[in-house]
Amino acid sequence: MKYTKNFIVVTMLLFLSILISFGQKSIIFIEDSADTFGNSRYLATALDSLALDYFYYDTETSGIPELEILTAFDLVIWHTSTWGVGLYFWVGSNTEEHLIKKYLDTPNANLWLIGNDFMFEKYNSAPDNFTQGSFPYDYLGITSYKAQSYGDDGGLGVPYLVPTSPNVIEDLTDIRWVFTHLNWADSYEIRETATPIFEFGDDNYPLKGGITGYFYPRENGSNVMTFGFDLSLCSSKDTMVNTVQKVTNFFFKVSSTNNITTEKQLFKVYPSIITNEVYILTNQNSSKNLSMTLYNTQGQIAFQSKVDIYEGSVKNISIPESLPKGIYYCTLSHENIKETHKLIKI
After folding, report:
1. How confident is the model at residue 16 (pLDDT cuts 50, 70, 90)?
2. Which of 115, 179, 182, 123 is nearest to 151 (CA)?
3. In the listed set 227, 254, 281, which residue is the last one of a domain according to the structure?
4. Distance (Å, rounded) from C-alpha 187 to C-alpha 199?
5. Is residue 262 in a domain?
6. Considering its fold, how many domains does the chain have in total?
7. Which bin fits 217, alpha (ψ -120 to 50), beta or left (φ > 0)?
8. pLDDT at 21
């Protein structure tokens, strides 16, 4: 059945109003594939298994979604499945009107891009390199479209994927396929501020170690997770559901900038994108012996400092150059006060 855009918008608003009333995070699942295997519908059942409410948007019946639809949700899951041609994802990609560019230029946007071979439509076969000013580099955090399974491994296909170690997402497991090997999965080289999640496995596989899943926090506060493989082709639904659960939990944790804080914040920490120093402003009367602790995404202490700060004053704290780039949670503690702010070191 083909729905009109007005019908979609009205239905979506009703859906969102229900979620908001229950304080739930909102997800839109976008099917952007012309395959006839039902892979997108199957992947979306992982959200059903986790009892996560979501809005399903099929581009084949409804066309490209409008920016206002994407920005209404906390997380956009964009699934291209296994058919890497005719994708709405690339429509207008050479212009400033590109939907994905406009969406990711929105602070707090969260995109999870999933699919085999989606780079092929735009860049054909690997390899291809990208620099500042290009869409893959600026928006997806890709410096090189490096290789494809089957196409660049002598016709073998990748036997399985392994979570990278260390990993910003805990308790991920190996991913095997409904086939003996997966063809046309992409591997990438990524920017320094991006973090690997999955890589090609098997000691005897020629492309072993190639990064095929990664997380990229952009400087404006938007976040991108890219899986260069079709997650719906897992050999085990339990693995598929576990992966969806871990990734969605991670997104909602990262996008909550003050998730362990008092109702009214007493401190301002800026900028949120840091290099070698951070500033703290307080409206407290006095905060002697204020403790600042930076935790990495694995919950480990990365840096600590103690300062005295007074109402209306600004205190700058130097951050070690040796601190690795990435996402950190800055916890400020003073007596019975505890606040947490998200920072990204670039």
Report:
1. very low
2. 182
3. 254
4. 8
5. no
6. 2
7. beta
8. 37
